[in-house]
Write a structure and sequence with these properties.
The protein is mainly α and 148 residues long. The chain has eight helices and no strands. It folds into two domains: 54 residues; 75 residues, Arc Repressor Mutant, subunit A (Orthogonal Bundle).
Length: 148
């Protein structure tokens, strides 16, 4: 961002120096000073729009991580324990992604939810699994047969 602003400033300075050196003879021949200023303002306005469009591009979406197909096909979670603990379907999805080592931001991007919602789900999971940390929650869930 800073380099683009610097380049833009240098370009504007170079054009102004060029105009001063040429004493406006080639560019402004037959034009009044007002029209010259309007022309340069229009050029820089268009440049500003292109610069804004380039700078405001949204980041590339995070591609969902693929789980190992051999584990996904063979492992079946213990649904009775899930319901006994009161773990919802969405909380279970979050738990699986936590077990893969994803951050809250990565989980939010993959599940199309906000980061604060992920934090709420993780907090609920820690409470329901009686864990203090995410790693401890994953260990408890593996021991209970909830995740592979």
């Amino acid at each position: 961002m800073k380099s683009i602003v610097l380049k833009f400033g240098l370009l504007a300075t170079a054009l102004l120096i060029l105009l001063q050196l040429s004493e406006y003879t080639y560019i402004t021949r037959g034009f009044s000073a007002e029209w010259t200023v309007v022309g340069f303002a229009a050029v820089f306005l268009v440049f500003g729009f292109f610069l804004n469009r380039f700078m405001s591009k949204s980041p590339e979406p995070v591609a969902p991580m693929e789980s190992a197909p051999e584990l996904a096909e063979t492992f079946v979670p213990d649904r009775s324990k899930l319901s006994a603990l009161g773990i919802s379907k969405r909380e279970y999805e979050v738990l699986e992604l936590v077990a893969q080592g994803l951050s809250n931001q990565e989980i939010a991007a993959q599940l199309f939810i906000s980061e604060s919602t992920v934090k709420t789900h993780v907090s609920n999971l820690l409470s329901k699994l009686d864990a203090r940390r995410r790693t401890q929650a994953v260990t408890i869930a593996k021991t209970m047969g909830l995740i592979a």
